[in-house]
Amino acid sequence: MNIYLFAFLINTLLTPTSPPQIIYVGKTALWSAYYDDRKTPVIVELSGIKYGHLDTLRRIEGVIEGLLAASDNGELRLKNGVYTYRNRALKFTVKLKKANYTSKIDAQREKLFGVHAMQVINNLKRRYNRGNYQMSGRVSEDYAYYRDSDHFPEGYRPGFIVEFYEKEKLPQ
Length: 172
Known about the structure:
By secondary structure, this protein is α+β, with helices and mostly antiparallel strands. It has one domain (about 20-165). It is built from 4 helices and 8 strands. It has an 8-stranded antiparallel barrel. Strand 5 and strand 6 form a beta hairpin. It is globular, with a radius of gyration of 17 Å. The model is unreliable at about 1-15 (pLDDT under 50).
């Protein structure tokens, strides 16, 4: 038990407490993509009209033709110092440009995270037939932790998911 407490304390103490200084941003007519190169695992955040998704990618060992990481639908490449993200399911490719982190970018990412949270909760409501469940305002706390952290422990679940299971008395 003490080893778990020690690991929790180390993780808590080493977790950053501020937003990133820089972020990589790409925009098309319909989509926006954000990539924080501090994060492990690699996550590209996707935003569209009423759409928010956190595409978690797996790192590729031995970079092949600039391919750094990939998921079932997306891939992140680095070629000549330029990041490019491509999503096959949404059928778009975007160059990610380095940008200073601003309050405007933070607000856009928080909105994206909130839309993503609603989509996750709606999927859980359908799966467990819990149509009356109301999500609390805890999403902003989850976003702050997500934004400020560079590493997520294996099995990490945002508070809005944990809260769903607890309120609905479902096994996790």
